[in-house]
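> call design_seq(struct)
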């Protein structure tokens, strides 16, 4: 038997909200209406949601892809910057039945700058750079494939550092109709190199580059569990090493201008699987 559960809600950008699948069909059939999906978070592009699957769930999928469940049935899902307008959760139950929850993913108005010129011609990368970049990318991808049993993903994230937000997630330049790459994280300008920054949530260090990567500089990455990870770019130094367990608020490194950076700042990016997420939707406005 299939139970179709609908998620009510909207206005995700207004702040944290509660969307609950009320299971009206289940109620009419005399089934347990508590077998709901309960989502809290930001149901918008670049956003995220935590939820809890029905108690008898055997397997959960989000838009056709399997989602890992914690021992208590809790889960995390997230929505890429260019996510489509709809999401669907499907819980396959141990008795052979299923429950579905469909919900809207609200669009956002990104900061787009249109330049009436073509992109500046760059110098074609030489073979040495191409080999170096391929090795760096392989290390980043290998780090992101690591999945520790940690619960940082359950926490309310905090800012790793305070300062002026000098670059916003999702902003993009379009050169004479040709889109450039959008900004994949949040830039926090602290004024000088050496400013300490902390872990926004619990996790395990999955990459701490001793050498400067060509673009990211001294790169530090933390796995928060459930496929969610943070990356901190352009560091001047690290206070932790790969394999270290870190706690929220722990000092983990210092801001710098290593790699491709025009000045000292902390670039903080968050990913869930392949989806790039907006850190602002995890922490809220920068404190005054």
């Amino acid at each position: 038997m299939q139970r179709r559960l609908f998620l009510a809600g909207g206005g995700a950008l207004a702040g944290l909200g509660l969307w609950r699948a009320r299971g009206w069909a289940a109620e009419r059939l005399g089934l347990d209406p508590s077998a709901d999906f309960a989502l809290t978070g930001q149901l918008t592009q670049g956003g995220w949601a935590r939820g809890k699957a029905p108690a008898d769930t055997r397997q959960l999928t989000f838009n056709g892809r399997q989602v890992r469940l914690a021992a208590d049935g809790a889960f995390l899902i997230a929505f890429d910057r260019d996510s489509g307008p709809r999401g669907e959760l499907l819980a396959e139950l141990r008795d052979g039945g299923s429950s579905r929850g469909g919900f809207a993913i609200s669009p956002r108005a990104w900061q787009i700058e249109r330049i009436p010129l073509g992109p500046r011609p760059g110098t074609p990368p030489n073979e040495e750079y191409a080999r170096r970049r391929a090795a760096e990318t392989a290390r980043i991808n290998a780090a992101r494939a690591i999945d520790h049993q940690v619960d940082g993903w359950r926490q309310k994230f905090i800012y790793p550092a305070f300062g002026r937000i000098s670059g916003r997630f999702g902003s993009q330049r379009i050169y004479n109709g040709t889109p450039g790459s959008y900004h994949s994280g949040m830039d926090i300008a602290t004024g000088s190199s050496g400013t300490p920054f902390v872990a926004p949530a619990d996790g395990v260090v999955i990459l701490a580059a001793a050498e400067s990567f060509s673009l990211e500089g001294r790169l530090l990455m933390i796995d928060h569990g459930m496929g969610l990870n943070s990356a901190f770019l352009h560091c001047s130094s690290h206070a932790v090493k790969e394999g270290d367990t870190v706690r929220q608020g722990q000092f983990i490194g210092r801001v710098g201008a290593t790699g491709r950076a025009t000045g000292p700042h902390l670039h903080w990016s968050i990913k869930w699987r392949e989806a790039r997420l907006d850190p602002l939707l995890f922490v809220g406005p920068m404190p005054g």
